């Protein structure tokens, strides 16, 4: 099993952000986290990626407990946070080399890893262009490439197509599908169309809990459409 999550729980003050989330994931699966604003998607992803400690529960990547052996677990996953920071004046090449070296790779290994990640993220000609001059779509690909540098089998992407125009969205979705062939992916999205287009499984989260975990087709069949499923399964109350 690539990823096993059991009973994850996180509170911030009196607010329960994640309230007992559990699921598992295998290679070849692309899981979409769906849910209203504030449902707990990002908090769950951050706990799985080892950037936030759960109050309760465990996440294990290839049986490695993320909270107990954070570094070993993180070597096996790539995480693209929402609005990941990039250094605008650097080119993707220098930025990715920098990230690879801060990850402890030798110069030679870093060069090799950057070349492969740039190829996997389809950076093409933009590799030598300052990041601040790139379109949002290409900047997102630079972020993706940085998550792919160490060739992880698990990828966690927080709203990877948010803010992109339809063409760029299409291109990044193609990329996600391709990456998902040999890896396990979790993406969060507010786009039901995206879930239908790329996800093999949809996990609907509401108020910190999983309220559905099935294929997009099964959700559609049960509720008539994904939109209806979303409306029925989530309470739609606005959270801060
Ligand atoms: N660091 C924090 N401190 C306090 N509250 C937080 C913190 N991070 C998240 N929360 C709260 O936890 C709840 C879940 O937030 P989270 O960001 O996980 O939701 P989300 O499903 O990713 O939402 P969105 O779709 O808006 O990105 C929200 O009520 C949020 O305000």
Automatic annotation (TrEMBL):
Residues 3-232 form the ABC transporter domain. Its EC number is 3.6.3.-. It comes from the Bacteria. InterPro entries: AAA+_ATPase, ABC_transporter-like_ATP-bd, ABC_transporter_ATP-binding, P-loop_NTPase. It holds the Pfam family ABC_tran. Keywords: ATP-binding, Hydrolase, Nodulation, Nucleotide-binding, Transport. One of its GO terms (molecular function) is ATP binding. PANTHER family: ABC TRANSPORTER ATP-BINDING PROTEIN, ABC TRANSPORTER ATP-BINDING PROTEIN NATA. Belongs to the ABC transporter superfamily. This is Putative ABC transporter ATP-binding protein YxlF. It comes from Terricaulis silvestris. The gene is yxlF.
